[in-house]
Amino acid sequence: MGSSFGIVFKVHTWGESHGRAVGCVVDSPPAGLKLNEEDIQKELDRRKPGGKLASKRKESDKVEILSGIFEGLTTGTPISMLVWNRDARPEAYEPIKNLIRPGHADYTYLAKFGFRDWRGGGRASARETVARVAAGAIAKKLLSEFGVGIYGYTKEIAGIRCEVSGEIEEIFKRAEKNSVRCPDEEKAVLMEEKIIEAMKSGDSVGGVVEVVAKNVPAGIGEPVFDKLDARLAYAVMSIPAVKGVEIGSGFSCSKMRGSEHNDAVILKDGKIRFETNNAGGILGGISCGEDIVIRAAIKPTPSISIPQKTVNVETMEETEIVVKGRHDPCIVPRAVPVVEAMVAITIADLMMLQGIIPRSLIKKH
Amino acid sequence: MGSSFGIVFKVHTWGESHGRAVGCVVDSPPAGLKLNEEDIQKELDRRKPGGKLASKRKESDKVEILSGIFEGLTTGTPISMLVWNRDARPEAYEPIKNLIRPGHADYTYLAKFGFRDWRGGGRASARETVARVAAGAIAKKLLSEFGVGIYGYTKEIAGIRCEVSGEIEEIFKRAEKNSVRCPDEEKAVLMEEKIIEAMKSGDSVGGVVEVVAKNVPAGIGEPVFDKLDARLAYAVMSIPAVKGVEIGSGFSCSKMRGSEHNDAVILKDGKIRFETNNAGGILGGISCGEDIVIRAAIKPTPSISIPQKTVNVETMEETEIVVKGRHDPCIVPRAVPVVEAMVAITIADLMMLQGIIPRSLIKKH
Amino acid sequence: MGSSFGIVFKVHTWGESHGRAVGCVVDSPPAGLKLNEEDIQKELDRRKPGGKLASKRKESDKVEILSGIFEGLTTGTPISMLVWNRDARPEAYEPIKNLIRPGHADYTYLAKFGFRDWRGGGRASARETVARVAAGAIAKKLLSEFGVGIYGYTKEIAGIRCEVSGEIEEIFKRAEKNSVRCPDEEKAVLMEEKIIEAMKSGDSVGGVVEVVAKNVPAGIGEPVFDKLDARLAYAVMSIPAVKGVEIGSGFSCSKMRGSEHNDAVILKDGKIRFETNNAGGILGGISCGEDIVIRAAIKPTPSISIPQKTVNVETMEETEIVVKGRHDPCIVPRAVPVVEAMVAITIADLMMLQGIIPRSLIKKH
Amino acid sequence: MGSSFGIVFKVHTWGESHGRAVGCVVDSPPAGLKLNEEDIQKELDRRKPGGKLASKRKESDKVEILSGIFEGLTTGTPISMLVWNRDARPEAYEPIKNLIRPGHADYTYLAKFGFRDWRGGGRASARETVARVAAGAIAKKLLSEFGVGIYGYTKEIAGIRCEVSGEIEEIFKRAEKNSVRCPDEEKAVLMEEKIIEAMKSGDSVGGVVEVVAKNVPAGIGEPVFDKLDARLAYAVMSIPAVKGVEIGSGFSCSKMRGSEHNDAVILKDGKIRFETNNAGGILGGISCGEDIVIRAAIKPTPSISIPQKTVNVETMEETEIVVKGRHDPCIVPRAVPVVEAMVAITIADLMMLQGIIPRSLIKKH
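Above: the input entities. Below: the structure tokens describing the complete assembly.
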């Protein structure tokens, strides 16, 4: 257990960094959704390694859909997808197989399971997020049929923070244009400099991803535990490297007064809306019709080539480790589609549970 | 659905602010745990309203255990507990029953369910956390049998932040001594001033709660979705008023370098340990044997007596609302035992799932 | 865990035979269902002990609803219900507390939990089914709003089997009129004779309960594991004393040919229907629009006053036991409302999951 | 949802009869179990089509393990397996794609999803059980490490019923030797005759499968809903073509007296055991240490070449259908390994939940 997420739109992932493949089963979007491999591929391509700031691992990450589609439509039964690992190089990890890499899950998998797949972190590798992005692509396609858009970008890298305003679609487009996925071009340049600087010294940097879900209808979320914000926190905190999650005002709420934090209730086109959005679109764990706004803190990549203190678990002696290889000096830009995916999965799940997304998109017989 | 939490140590809560009672079913701690109402009561007393900084609602919050105990021991079957609502005053809400209180769940419950129990927020009230604290008391008692301690305190109120150091038991004891539950006495005075200041102007303030779980064994947590940090974020974000959750370094990780953030691996008494704890005790979603450290951002109480813009849902006209009544100007101190409870429930659940806590504490027949 | 049933219409039960109370939490029917204690009470009264063929335990079984109702309507949040145990007499069990009662769960609870609540079977008692019937009453009320009726009766007792035909409502009414709940009056007399005969010799008899669900819409059930028949089997087999479950033709299918067993597909009022109903209303795990027909085999009451071989777990010596006290010589008639309850819960759950029963019965704001 | 089974040993299946492949994810057996493709293949080979009494579809059913194994041992993370469909011939179904095949799920899938994959039943095909058998093979391998054996055979076909006695391993071996999987050779001949007779007239026959689980330790099963018998009924009733499930005495209990049905409690080698086994190894939903005995009624194959009444859903006119093609005249023998698989999965799941099977078979670091 542990590799499943979702209540009615369920995602099950599998696979290791240097195993044969990674994949997932999505059980299930409603019947009648148009879906093909291209819908999935375009999201995987956003996550794919490559570029001057990313890992040199060469993976085409071509997705194959194995079930659940008939005549171009989802059938309402499980969709199985896989991506073959083409550029796995487990041998690169052989020299350090007995060394615990700081900041990684090496020791904890050992403590839990008694031994571990040391090939690039095995199941604990960020490569596992390929499956999340594939599942998320289905959720995004489904949400788009109901007018809901999921937009992510880099909010902060290495202390450089950008402020955003304007139409979320435009913000998103701008962000997609640069290598750090930051919607503010000037800040993007500064972020890139920080990354290159860290990379040169064999080090890495962290940041913050922000995701906005637009047009989520009011009424989504299941109090008191399966609240929309609780499910989002669960989903996003499960992503490798995430150390914090916040909704709307987030941690800044601790410095605000009630009169400042409360979003005034107003009428707009005869409908109840809110003047501000400190709530991040969620009140009492249920969506209120405003944009859902969520941020995730991403830690600096633990794989660095600077020597670090560690322990050899074979000899049980203290020693040093230098993690060589193909690692991103900053995973924030590649984390953006992963956070989007988890947000999309969570919202699709709760919209189905609420009955806003029906079990079939086809007029019944 | 929605009112259950836990995989094998399951908690189901029920009840409304101004209904007959609030309660929970805990299904189930292992058989053979010594447990009585006093174990529960002492935690409820920590959460209870009262004191100069808290709501004037008079609730003795006496818990009754209705099942699952035989001859002073848990039987391994569900424990049902309830607390009667003694000082419910639904009539106080009658005048504003058609007004959407800003910052509350009034509109979202209406949007989801088509109508709402307007008596003090109904199910959305923080009174629901009585049940969480009762369930958490069982989890804490159980964890204590396995050497695990759960310690919470106020980290920040209204921008006043305290730093803590030393033995966690001592920090906890100091915090319990003052009305704001802050372990730093000087900061506690400042926090109290801020609260009184806000109260006087009919306003409210927010803050941050920190909880430390000590002696959690390595190996707890179920990758890749039911990770310990993901489950903790899920649990804690489900608490009313929480807008953010972070583990270890949390959002500050975004400004750190990998060489700074990684916790060096060392040997201590022949065992693998970590020199620092930016990880907050969790790597790859699994506990590493260091203290689990989690923080929750608590928004300022939405009930304030300053006039606010709102809408009357009966007339569908914009108007103003003044929320009178018995509200805490700052709920951070009373949120401390609630966050502790959710952390305890989460850890007990995952320790049972890992088999570290067995199904019976009694030597089998 | 273990005391919960349902995917979205969840039922959590608690309580022991001779503890303070038994009860349940139902999380949750849709908002806007008219519901009061009388709706529950009338079903509990059908299950209640009493009459010449039943246990002499005097329980009024008065239900109290503690949450989830506002102004006579369900709010969409958990409904907590309890029934106080009034005539508990744990002392009656003291003399046999170390003896394993054959046919009961005494030994298995001991093996699982290391000790056991020996007061009348504790959690393993059929008294637990009070909670099922209370929850089932909500499910039945909800289903009736959607035209679905749940009708149970005794099919067989002690080898006396009745055949039924005609309108199910009439069959049901006839069955409710006699003490064995058999729709065939002549067979009812024979069944009663068999029960009295067994009772006189300190023995007990078993039988078969049949439940028909009428007007269940086509399309209910979630292949390939949460099929309607699989969920029904799960639900009904979880009832104490049930040793077998069958749908439609059931075990008799093993003697039929395909040409005989297949239900011909026909048109009726322009709609697809079936000429016969060997399928029992379910094909491929999904309802087909015909009556759902399910039968449960009920074993003879294990509590008998004839001496039986057993073991004293204190001395670990073989000995004899005579189970005195207040037991039904045949629990089949009282099992009828329990099987109905589990069938109703299962169908309500899957209808909600399919979106046929919405989350709110009230026109949304 | 719907395609997952299990609480902690979870199985997720996917795939259609004439899609690209069928497969499953098993999440997860404990770490450290020796496992290879041959362990899976030998069970798939038992289920494989072929032989004079079975479908002429030519499938080698070669399994591929894609994840979760490292150096020959399970890692404790999800095991993904697939079997490519080699002999899919969807075109064979084209002529009848608008006709509802009696006894099949054609109409119900249409009613539920609004359209259907008509290629050989799509997801509703018995081909889906390939995935169950693959998952069950892991469960069986795991159980065998703990001394638990799962043994299935044909109990009845077309009214010919065999009685079995002696060592279950021997019974099992005998059954595996003939084409109908019946442990009684003489009865096997009669069964085969019945099948051939039906086949010649284009018809089909049903039967009963019996599975015995040996050496299941006492204490398995989670009252009051996740009882061992309830979980077994759930698991087995979810298999295509199963119309009834019974445990131990099963439906025959309805004709027995309590004094006859109760299994006397005795001492054997100083341990509590039972003289008879009408309970089928389960009391109060918990295993008692005796053999678990379960039977499943299997309906006659619905695909028959005798003309049947049906409806054309395109024209909505009544018509006739003749189902040609590659079908088993009796699926009972091939159902045996499927029932075994579901029983094994259920028991492995509950043994893990009880902590009898630990999370790692490797001595911890």
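Note for the figure: Residues 43 and 325 of chain C are 25 Å apart (CA to CA).
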